[in-house]
Design brief:
The protein contains nine helices and eight strands. The strands form two sheets. Strands 2, 3, 4, 7 and 8 form a five-stranded parallel β-sheet that branches. It has a three-stranded parallel β-sheet with strand order 1-6-5, with helices on one face. Helix 4 crosses helix 5 and helix 7 runs parallel beside helix 8. It is globular, with a radius of gyration of 17 Å. It starts with a strand and ends with a helix.
């Protein structure tokens, strides 16, 4: 079985995809949309069902601004937890519920792009989503913007301020990279957030000769 999964594209173009994950909070979303608009950048947003239910008007603004909106499942949880049985019907039901609620909230359809919470991937969830014609979008750069203060205390060496996160991304990006940015904040908080330095990141990418694009653009140019 050949699963549809988008990881890293190498099409000879100096393009990267900016991917924004809207999970529960919409903190920073208006500023993010304004910055993307100022640069004329079309990006890909993945919205979670909890964000759709709690912030329908804010989530609607993403599509109205012309961005691509993909599926981030109906709820946010650790899919590696053995308490959950991740069979195909469960995955398909979670994707379908998020589709329905997003349409009810926005009047728009989700694109057939998705990724699981925490970018977890397995043959079972790939097979289930393929049956619904979804393409799974992986990441090749972990931006670490999801690391909060409490986790930094228990796992030293993975917390960086936002400006340093931009430098790390620039060191690790490649043509075709998918660069995830979290909208909102970790439960245990940070001193600052990567979305607050979005202009710095875009400036750095442009200066390095890279064009930020949506995931679907990477797919099209990789064909």
């Amino acid at each position: 079985l050949k699963h549809k999964i988008i990881d890293v594209f190498r099409a000879g173009r100096r393009e990267v995809a900016l991917v924004f994950n809207v999970i529960q909070s919409v903190e920073g979303l208006p500023e993010t949309l304004a910055t993307l608009g100022a640069y004329g950048v079309r990006a890909t947003f993945f919205v979670n069902g909890e964000a759709v239910r709690a912030h329908p008007e804010a989530v609607s603004e993403i599509g109205r601004a012309g961005h691509e909106v993909g599926n981030l499942f109906t709820t946010h949880f650790n899919m590696t937890d053995s308490r959950f049985r991740l069979d195909r019907e469960f995955i398909k039901a979670g994707l379908a519920r998020n589709e329905d609620e997003y349409f009810q909230a926005t009047g728009r359809e989700l694109s057939l792009l998705w990724h699981a919470p925490f970018y977890f991937v397995s043959s079972e969830i790939l097979a289930a989503s393929q049956e619904m014609n979804y393409q799974y979008v992986s990441r090749d750069v972990d931006t670490l913007d999801w690391v909060g203060r409490d986790l930094a205390l228990s796992t030293p060496g993975i917390y960086y301020d936002a400006a340093t996160l931009v430098e790390r991304i620039m060191d690790r990006k490649k043509p075709g990279s998918i660069l995830p940015i979290t909208i909102g904040s970790p439960d245990d908080g940070r001193e600052d957030y990567l979305f607050q330095k979005l202009d710095l990141l875009i400036d750095a990418l442009l200066a390095a000769g890279y064009e930020p694009v949506a995931v679907s653009t990477l797919v099209e140019h990789a064909r």
